[in-house]
Amino acid sequence: MSRMYMLLAVDALLILLAFMAVRRQIVVPLRDLSTHCRELAGGNYSTRFEVSNQDEIGQLAKVFNESAWRIGSLVDRIEQDRSSLERAESMFRGIAENSMVGVYIAHKGRFIYVNAKMAEMFGYTRDEMVAEVPSSIVFSEASSEEVGETSARERLLGNVPGLWVERKGRRRDGTLIEVEIFGSLMSLNGDLVTIGIALDITRRKEVEAQARLAMLVHRHSSEAMVVTDPAGRLISVNPAFTKITGYQSEEVIGKRLSVLSSGRHDANFYQDMWHAIRTTGSWEGDIWNRRKNGEIYAERLTVNTSYDDDGIPRYRIGLFSDITKQKEADAFIWRQANYDHLTGLPNRQFFHDRLEKEMQRSDVTGRPLALVYLDLDDFKELNDTLGHSTGDKLLAQAAERLSSCVRSTDTVARLGGDEFVFILGGLADLEVVDRICELVMERLAEPFLLDGEQTVISASMGITFYPIDGESIKGLLQNADLAMYSAKGRGKRQMARFMPSMQVHMAMRRELGRDLVVALREQQFDLAYQPIIELASGRIDKVECLARWRHPQKGMISPVVFVPFAEDSGLIDQIGEWVFRKATRQVAQWRRIVPGLQASVNVSPAQFLGKAMCPREWLEHLSGLDMAGTHVVVEITERLLMNADSEISRKLIAFRDAGVQVALDDFGTGYSSMSYLKRFDIDYIKIDQSFIRNLAPGSEDLVLCEAMIVMAHRLGLQVVAEGVETLAQRDLLLAAGCDFAQGYLFSRPVDGERFEALLREGHIAAATMSRQSSNTGRFDQRT
């Protein structure tokens, strides 16, 4: 038993020893390993299980230690990555939140992040864009170069790794903006997203469009464009520059614009121009420059300066166009407006400008100036006789002669018609005016060769001095005109200096014009009657009815005085109408005594030209008096026929058709009476008294009278001699075959009662002629 117990004790001891061995070799290491595992799980990645055994426990400890090291290393890297990610995220947000461009992150067509600029760019809040706005709405339309590309939106939505594109973006209010987008794919939380930036390039696009437009303008503009440095050296020119100047760009780049200088402008001109450019930055004006081929042209130049941010001039930009034709047109228009097209002399307008400047100069220098008013004598008759074309040639030649008589500083102008004026300024010696006027007379007296024939003319001149005779342009002209008319009153080729008394005379003339209106209203007119004698029988055949004005204060006023006023004022129509009706009424009564008596009535050219004169009404008036048209003779002058238009011809034809006869008064004093006798139905010519006054056997006047009588008879006309005062004159005219005569030999113009007495005598007796022949007054028989 004890052996058994001993054996049991030994076994128990062995078991205990085995347990102790196992515990020390297995249980304790495993318990330590468990402790280290808990430490590792608690985040102590530096814990290590130290064993020296090489058994399974030792192998397990080795694996544990390696795993702990790897886990520690991995956690360290994770911590480092997380720190880097946090720093990157912080940097991203810092950059995105403060960026001047839009930043976004999109996933599957929706924004998951936008910065403030992105939201502002499209008009939303950030929350609205993330929560409500699909990216497809914002990036709605492709720019023009992307239209038709189906992949564009795919790239924007994150389905393409990366992109750079320009698109049109739609703002919340529906307006479109130009957007430049840079985007790329990235993984975020296991998802592929697009991160990108969006830049509003609307302004840039506008600037680019403007730049393209500017380039087009620069290239295709008809206006030359040049760019220079601040010193004026050329940097750039456009094709229009080459077209205008002829210079290619490579020929002028680096040179100054003075290469175009024409030499027309002096140094002061360019100094003033550059002073303006440097002080104001701009200049505008007209310049004459020279093309490459040497031709001078005009350009309108505008210069502006481009400055840098510091206000320092960087470029000068010049624009110019060729205005040569415009300058030529302006010069032509100016000359047309200021010069007489026929003579090339200054016209009335330019004359006024010149006279005003000379008057101002006279005020400064104290030297007087002379104003000379010149009118060609009898030019109208000559012009109408020779024809207006020849008259124009005469005026042009006369203008050349007038210009050759004055000094280079003087002005000769044409006011109109045959009226010229001289401005003779800076007179140190008034005798200069006399010498110039005498020279003018001499030059004008030289024959003019017109269409192969010589013509002689003369002129009348009136002279005024500033400031002696007037202190205004109007006053000087009026006084010079008065002086000229005073010279004409003395005869042809005369000159007169203005005198204050001339103004008194003119005032009297104006007063007479006013009195004429009163005379019509108060019936101050009457008729005088002068018989026209048939020379062969001595009987009274016709009576010339002459108007007389019995002025209550001035007495009898001759038609020679008042008719010009009546013509100028238009009163001649009323006077002429009154004369015709009164004369025909009186003659209608006298025809009971002399049935064949004709009334001869003078008709003024102004009256004939007026619309008031109506042949039909005159004929109706005659019919009411039981008179035929053949009972009336209308006396007209060459002046009327010279201006015979269709209306005058119609009136003459109406008279002819009604039997009214026409007499051409003052025949022989004109220049081309024969042409009128061919053109118009004339019944009588009345030889002017200037041919009768000195009529004598063998005289030139007799030869002329005989020629006129023969010519008239061959044309089927009859002849009336005016101003017959002596029996000798009557006999010579009768021998020459003259048909009729009137004059003081037979009777002065008399009143109606005296004329009726003459009619009742039946003829002008020879004895009466003899008594009256002692009256040898030499004046107009009809006044």
Topology:
Elements: H1 2-41, H2 56-98, E1 102-107, E2 110-114, H3 116-122, H4 126-131, H5 135-138, E3 141-142, H6 152-156, E4 162-170, E5 176-188, E6 191-200, H7 202-220, E7 224-228, E8 234-237, H8 239-245, H9 249-252, H10 267-280, E9 282-290, E10 296-307, E11 313-322, H11 324-338, H12 348-365, E12 369-376, H13 379-386, H14 388-405, E13 411-416, E14 419-424, H15 431-445, E15 448-450, E16 453-455, E17 459-466, H16 473-489, E18 495-497, H17 500-521, E19 525-534, E20 540-551, E21 555-557, H18 559-569, H19 572-590, E22 598-602, H20 605-609, H21 615-624, E23 632-636, H22 638-642, H23 646-657, E24 661-667, H24 673-679, E25 684-687, H25 689-692, H26 700-714, E26 718-721, H27 727-736, E27 740-741, H28 752-761, H29 766-772
Parallel strand pairs: 17-18, 20-22, 22-23, 23-24, 24-25, 25-26, 26-27
Antiparallel strand pairs: 1-2, 1-6, 3-4, 4-5, 5-6, 7-8, 7-11, 9-10, 10-11, 12-14, 12-17, 13-14, 15-16, 19-20, 19-27, 20-21
Helix pairs in contact: 1-2, 13-14, 14-15, 17-18
